[in-house]
Amino acid sequence: MPELPEVEALRDFLADRAVGREVVRVLPVAISVLKTYDPPVTALEGRPVTAVHRHGKFLDLDADGLHFVTHLARAGWLQWKDRLPDGAPRPGKGPLALRLALETGEGFDLTEAGTQKRLAVYVVPDPRQVPGIARLGPDPLAADFDERRLSALLSGERRQIKGALRDQSLIAGVGNAYSDEILHAARMSPFKPTSSLSPEETGRLYEALRTTLTEAVERSRGLATGRLKAEKKSGLRVHGRTGEPCPVCGDTIREVSFSDSSLQYCPTCQTGGRPLADRRLSRLLK
Length: 286
What we know:
Distance between the termini: 32 Å
Shape: elongated
Strand order of the largest sheet: 1-6-7-5
Strand content: 15-25%
Largest sheet: 4 strands, antiparallel
Radius of gyration: 20 Å
Order of helices and strands: HEEEEEEEEHHHHHHEEHH
C-alpha cells in the first residue's frame, strides 16, 4: 500500500507537471472507483489544476476550487503518461480504473491490481467532505508535530504500539510497512503496550518516526512514478525481508502473520532476542 512517503512523492511529481494545466477529460473505466457523484467528474473538465495536496495517504488535485481526491488503497497506483493513448479506454477486466487527461496530451491512469477493488476517487468542493480525510489525525511531518504532541496522542491509548501507529485517526499516513521500519529504528517490540512507554522510549519513538519518514520522502523525491515502488522496497530494512539478516545486528528477521497481513521485526534489536508468537501458526498447531 502506498504510504505517506510515496504519496508525498506523487504530490511533488504532479505539482511539477500538472499545476497550471487544464483538465480536458476525466474518464472513469471502473465505475466502482467513484465514491461521489455530485458534482460529477466531468465538472473538473475545463478547470486548471491550481495546487496538489496530500492528506495522510490521500492525494488531492485542486482544480480551481474543485478537488479530485484519491486514495490508492492496497493495490492502487498512479501511472503518469507523457502522451496518453488516443481515444477512450474500454471497460474490461484489466487494472485501469480511471484516466485523467490534461490539455498538453499528458495525464495519468489510476490502476488497481487484484480482485479487491478498494481504490477510491472523490470529487468534492472541500476535501474535508471525504470521510477518510475528516477523521485524520495530525501529519507526523508537520512542523508543529513535536515529541510533546506524540506523547499526548499516545497517553490515552491502551493498545499495542504497532496498531496505534497504523491508526489514521491518531497519526496520518503511516501504514504496515513504515510502522515496521519505525519500530525497528526505535528498537521497540510491535506488541509493546502504548501505556507502558517511558519518556525515554517516547522520545526514541518520536525520533524514529520523523527520521524514517523524512529519509523515505527524500529518497523518493524527484523519481518518476514508475520507480517509486522499487525505491520503497529497496529502502526498507525489515518489512518484507523475512529470513534475511538484520542490517543492524545480523540476526534473522522474523515474521508474525495475521489473516490478511504480516509484520516483520528483528528479535535482537526489538524484543530482547525473544521471537514473537506467530498467531496464525499457533492456531494451526492447536
